[in-house]
Amino acid sequence: MQQMEQRDEVEMLSLMLLIRRFEERASQQYQAQKIGGFCHLYIGQEAVVVGAIAAVRPDDYVITAYRDHGHALARGTSANACMAELFGKETGCSRGLGGSMHFFDKRHHMYGGHAIVAAHVPLGVGLAFAIKYRGEDRVTLCFFGDGAINQGSFHEALNLAALYKLPIIFICENNLFAMGTSVTRSTSLKRIVDRAEGYDIPGEIVDGMNFREVRDTVAEVADSIRKESHPAFLEVRTYRYRGHSMSDPASYRTKEELEKYRLDDPIIRLRAQLTREGKLTNEQFDQLDKQAKQTVLDSVKFAEESAQLPVEKLHDYVYFDGGKS
Amino acid sequence: MREITYRQALNEALAEELERDPNVFLMGEEVAEYQGAYKVSAGLLQRFGPRRIIDTPISENGFAGLGIGAAMVGLRPIIEFMTFSFSLVAFDQVVNNAPNMFMMSGGQFNIPITFRGPNGPAHQLGATHSHATENFYASVPGLKVCTPATPRDAKGLLKTAIRDDNPVLVLEAELLYSSKGMVEPPDEELLIPLGKAEVKREGSDVTVVCYAQTVPIALKVAAQLEEEDISAEVVDLRSIKPLDEKTIFDSVAKTHRVVIVEQDHPYCGVGAEICYRIQKDIFDELDSPVLRVSQEDIPMPYNEHLEHAVLPNAEKLFDAVKKVCYA
Hints:
By secondary structure, chain A is α/β, with parallel strands linked by helices. In chain A, 45% of the residues lie in helices and 11% in strands. Chain A contains 13 helices and eight strands. Chain A has a six-stranded parallel beta sheet with strand order 2-1-3-4-8-7, sandwiched between helices. Chain A has a two-stranded antiparallel sheet with strand order 5-6. Chain A is globular and about 50 Å long. By secondary structure, chain B is an alpha/beta fold. Chain B has 13 helices and 14 strands. Chain B has helices at 6-20, 44-48, 60-72, 84-87, 91-97, 101-104, 134-138, 151-163, 214-226, 245-255, 270-282, 304-310, 314-324, and strands spanning 2-5, 24-28, 53-55, 76-80, 114-119, 144-146, 168-173, 180-183, 198-201, 206-210, 232-236, 239-241, 258-261, 291-293. A seven-stranded mixed beta sheet of chain B has the order 3-2-4-5-7-6-12, with helices on both faces. In chain B, α1 packs parallel to α8 (151-163), α9 crosses α13 and α10 packs across α11 (270-282). The longest helix of chain B has 15 residues, at 6-20.
């Protein structure tokens, strides 16, 4: 509970706003062809990563899949470094070599940004293995989508984590769709969290549109893990407002469904809670939003003005020589 | 120097590196309590304990990925595949995660991991258990691949691989685990650099380029050829990637004739790459076309007689050498 109090809720709300405004601007820049490749937006899911990050320490490990902009921003990677990465610039968080799906930030313990569905779940288990091997009290947060849970690597990873009692929280961001396939068409179980039970991993369902519920649950689980190393599983129910990627009009779902979730928007919800409790005025909120928009606008300028990695330097990124050459 | 087996040499390399660096650990199927499917890790559990010698379930993708994750934060995992034929289950981890991480992260995360285990056709194991994977893996930028053929090379290359800051595959020769050879005593540090071939036998008429399980074949054929007054130089690649072009080129510049004997398939095989480089860079040195002896382009049959026919073997190599020598 100690960690929770350290992170001010208004600050967390502004982080959610930053992610929202960043993604909106990324969408616009993508359409303007400033950003290439695939681009998967996190809009609607902000409370999941911000809630989880609010509950852990800066030195805990974070790893996620390809819908990763929010995770890097929540971890502390600057909007400048994130936008520059989307623009493919050397100032990007992966020097423009990773792109939207491969955001890395060693300094902030952000271990990617991984684009093969569920292939990073064993990596997350490896991060947790290293924690236990060294006798540390860190925790690994391993995020993935509902589409990951039917891959072999996911199952192998859960079994290994349970077998070796590793300090990892598997966070399934269930946004109901793996690309265009709804969970009901992909998964035999009614509740994803029941997958964890099959590996004797304790699991819970969490409302991913509710920042406080995510934060409090992750805090409680992380606390338990730090006392005695074990894995845990959270099925965090959320919703993405946009398509799977920029090229997806999301015609597989109804307008009504989308509207229903929009009314339950995580930003509106936290704002209302804070306002009701007298911790935030409308003016303050407007100010936070203005700041977020400005930060993102500045990041576009930064990205545009940044240089690309010269072709001659490309070979420096194939093999690491430990500074020998 | 003393004579030990290839298996013992690998075991010594593992023990020495585990002793030297607390970040090194060994993980794989049957590596601990069973003492290794091929007994390469015999005694290590007793010496280093279960924290560092770790049995896994049969989950190649899972534990290969675990190793890569642990390497991201500075551990130096040694991941044993019971055979490299099973590494194909973990292909995504070995090909997509380990070698790409350094580039994808803009140089933030190198992966100091060793993948090791037996590779190449053994004896009558059928199509699924007979893969020679060196050409698959050598084609991937970011991976290094070595293929020791002698106890000395096995020890020296494995130790170097474990100390390398990149993903390295040590493809051990399944048929050579019990073969013997002279190796420096344990108190003498033995490190053999990656990307350095070795002339295993000097000769003047023809160069036979070989590696792993084809090295003993090449040496045997070279001895036979001597009776026919053909002097064959045997170049053991030792590493497939990086490739030691210089040692190959120097030998070819001396002999002007080359046969490459490889244990993989002919189509896009290791020999194809070497052949390309020879004709590109030292075309004028050649007195005859380069020939390759490899597996046939056929899934491996179980029947012993048919298996022999599919494998690169001494008869095929002997004939190929005679052909390039117009003898």
